[in-house]
Amino acid sequence: IELYRQAIEQDSLFAEAYAEISNSYVLLVTYGNLSWPEAKLQARSYIDKALAIDDQIGRPYTVLAFIYMTDKKFDLAKSYFEKAIKINPNDATAHHHFALFYRSHPDASESTILNYLKEITEAQKLDPLSMPINQMKFYALLANGRLEEAKEHFDKTSVLNSFFNNVRQEGLLNSMMKKDLREWVLALEKGHEEQPENMDILYYLRWLYSDLMMDKAKSLVYSKKISELDTSSGNYAFFYTDNMIRNKNFSEALNFLSDSVSSSTLDTWGKTVLKQRLYAYKGDYDLAWQYQEQLKPLHTGGYYFNKAWLYSFMGDDENTYKILGHPDFNPDRGQKVFFFANLGNRDSLYHYLNQIANDFYFMRRWEDLIIINGKDEIDPYRNDSLYTEILRQNYFPLNTYEK
């Protein structure tokens, strides 16, 4: 952004510079910490400046398409991607983001899945050394069930990847080939042996042992390693305290949170959420609501998620639905599963759970299902044949839980 601004200082009619700044702002949501409303506002202002100078360049239209795609206005997004590619058919970014459009599309038809692969293949031809494009092609091949081609592609392009990405991709490929998600864990364990201080691998192992393998004790071991390697990380403190709360060790959890040394790595948000949870699990809803309201100035989306969660935990259908309809809150399918699980609304729970389970983009599907599986909101449904069948079809290690 800064370099393009310097370019504009030298040439105020450089339309592409304005357009690329708009593209950078939407990417900052993923690669930085910019909120989507702010990114969209900034991006649109630079799109307008670019198009006022030259409306026959492609980048402003790919950014408009990205905005509409993110806002789930898929028809508009598609028309702008097509317009951008018509203007410049050799724009790898346009094809890359058009592939992302198909990956994000709610229609999981065969044509959508094929177009996902078609567009990312075109992007890869135009920019064969791009790491994100090659990674997406790997995932698109897996989504289309072309496992041998995915393996060939992985072998050819692994030199472009980080060590962590190679470990993750190998684990995912093996999981699909052997129909067993434990292969993902095994690949990460092997990677951990080679690079014991790789933080990305440690975070994944902490998460997979907690929510896939349901081994909270081993997950805590990895969480503690993370905190030892990064003394500023509140990962271990949060996970440790959350475990105590969910296991109803309330006095121990409160003592930990009250100890300035033990809880020193937790930020204000983490401490406040944990205290809201603690008092909710204790049934002291007056105190839980006091801490809930302290979240409001810290993060708008997080505030409304935790408010909906607290209402649903209390079994308050009416107020939960009010929060779900709030214009400042756009919960994803996984969050809705938690709310409806708390409310005991089985029809809505399985409606969203089946949406996730039928998502053709397996990476998003698996990640959502693993997160759901690790939470105690789902405990009353674990023995449901509908739930266990979803896990079985997605290669979860059910025999591990039985042992």
Description:
The protein has 403 residues and is an all-alpha fold. It has 24 helices and no strands. Helix 10 packs antiparallel against helix 11. The chain is globular. The protein starts with a helix and ends with a helix. The model has no long low-confidence stretch (mean pLDDT 94).
Topology, element by element:
Elements: H1 2-10, H2 15-31, H3 36-53, H4 59-70, H5 74-87, H6 92-104, H7 110-126, H8 131-143, H9 147-157, H10 163-178, H11 182-194, H12 199-211, H13 216-229, H14 235-246, H15 250-258, H16 268-282, H17 285-293, H18 300-313, H19 317-324, H20 333-343, H21 346-357, H22 362-373, H23 385-393, H24 398-402
Helix pairs in contact: 1-2, 2-3, 2-4, 3-4, 4-5, 4-6, 5-6, 6-7, 7-8, 8-9, 9-10, 10-11, 11-12, 12-13, 13-14, 14-15, 14-16, 15-16, 16-17, 17-18, 18-19, 18-20, 20-21
Please count the beta strands (DSSP E, at least 2 residues each): 0
Strand fraction equals: under 5%
**Main beta sheet:** none
User: Rounded to an integer, what's the Rg over CA atoms?
Assistant: 23 Å
User: Can you count the helices?
Assistant: 24
**Could you spell the SSE succession in H and E letters?**
HHHHHHHHHHHHHHHHHHHHHHHH
Structural class: mainly alpha
Q: Mean pLDDT score, rounded? A: 94
Q: Fraction of residues in helices?
A: over 70%
Q: What's the end-to-end separation, in Å? A: 54 Å
> Segments where pLDDT lies below 50 for 5+ residues?
none
Looking at the structure, what is the overall shape? globular
